[in-house]
Each structure stands twice: as C-alpha cells, then as structure tokens.
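Appendix B. One record, verbatim.
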Amino acid sequence: MRKFSAIASVATALVLALAACGSSEPATGADATASSSAQAVLKVGVSPIPHAVILKFVKDNLAAKEGLNLEIIDFADYVQPNVQLDEGQLDANYFQHRPYLDDFNASKGTKLTFVQAVHLEPLGLYSKKITDAASLGQGATVALPNDATNLGRALKLLADNSLITLKEGVGIAATERDVTGNPKDLKFQPLEAAQLPRSLEDVDAAVINGNYALESGLNPADDALVLEKAEGNPYSNGLVVKAGNEKDPRVVKLAKLLAGPEVKQFIEQTYKGAVISATS
C-alpha cells in the first residue's frame, strides 16, 4: 500500500507541474478571435495607380511594424471593387471618393462605409489636338466620364473654366440637361472612365480622372489644360469597408497608416502635385 501511495503522489505531482507550465489547449473565445484577427490577411481592392502604389509603400515599409498583413488586389474598373467588398471577397477597398460611394450605395442597395480620406486625384481636361482650353473649336467633341458623380464633376470643371454654364445651384449633381450656356456648341461624349485616355485619339478633348491619366502616362500637373483645385474639394479617395467593419483592428491600423506623415510625404515626393495628400 505504501508503494502504491508513493506512486500516486508522484503522479499527482507530475500533473500539477504540467498545469503550472500552462495549458497546451488552443486559445478560445475572445483571445482566439483577437489573435486570429491580428494575423489574418487584409484583402484590399485598389486601382493600379496611384492607389496600389501608395498601398504597396504601406505594405513594404509600415505594415509589419503594426502587425498588419496586406494583400493588394488590382481592379481595372470602378464597379467590381465595391461588388466584391459587398459580397465579402474583399475586406476593404481603396479607389473611390465619397460622392461616388454614396451614389453606388443608393443605386445598388449596398451598405459600404467611407473610413479614411487619403488623397485627391485632380480631374483634368486633356487633348492631343490643342494646347489650351480656349482653343477648343466650335462644335468640338469633349469626352466625359459617364458615371453620375464624375459626370457632374467634369461638367463643373468645364463651367469653372468658362467653357459652359450650368443651372444655378446644381453643383456636382449636374447632367447634360443642366447645361444652360454652351457658346462653342461643344458636343459631349460620355464614356466609361477607363476608356477616356484612349479616346484622346478620336475626340478634341477629354475630361479624365486622375488615376487613369497617370496610368496612361499623362501628368495632371503638367499635361492638363485645366485642372481641379484641391481647396475645398470633396473628391478625396479613401479607404472603404462594409458597414459594421469600421472597428476591425486591421482596418483601424490601416486607416491610421494611410493618414500618417509617412504616406503624406511619399505622395508628395512621388507625384509632385499630380496626386495631392488629403491629410494636413
């Protein structure tokens, strides 16, 4: 009996020693969720330029220090990044401004949320046939982006530069029906935004979104005949997530980095006014 008791005592001591070293069971509940969230890849849909370039700078230089693992996915259009975000194939996207997002939510019934403004891509008027806007001839054809928010934005750019006049108070909601004065009898040709740079061969001028201008080798600061002003501009591009995911720790970390001084400096040094930081 004494021998049995001694063996039992040794066994008990061994169990207690193992317990003192900590459980080998995996973490459960909130601890496991937090650990998984910190390590999980954050999939972000972007336009190639400048969004992917800016986000790659974050991934290569800043993300690891924050324990952030980014996967950057390029898109050539303005629709699929929102569709895939809504469907859960993406965790976030970074390609659009707030007015476009608001219009997309209203027309598609999605619930996507703007989290953090990052940069402004000034909309510009470009041409391969003339060197200044005043030289647009009578009856000239001008291509415009065909999505609702950028169409209004393009018409406002033309109005701000005295090429047309718009109905009073219409602002960025303008359509071709709101043109009240057109002294040069300009002809408008709405096209998908991505097609606008290619249209320069066929039209007299085109109003082109900043990212597509950059992708096609145009420099807004140097090549645009007229260019949007940054001051008071509502069209800053930023980080967007599905409603309810704004406080995801990965999203919070990425938003903080995108609004930080390192990204601001990178934008200023890389694009020299062709892309403008949205942070002060």
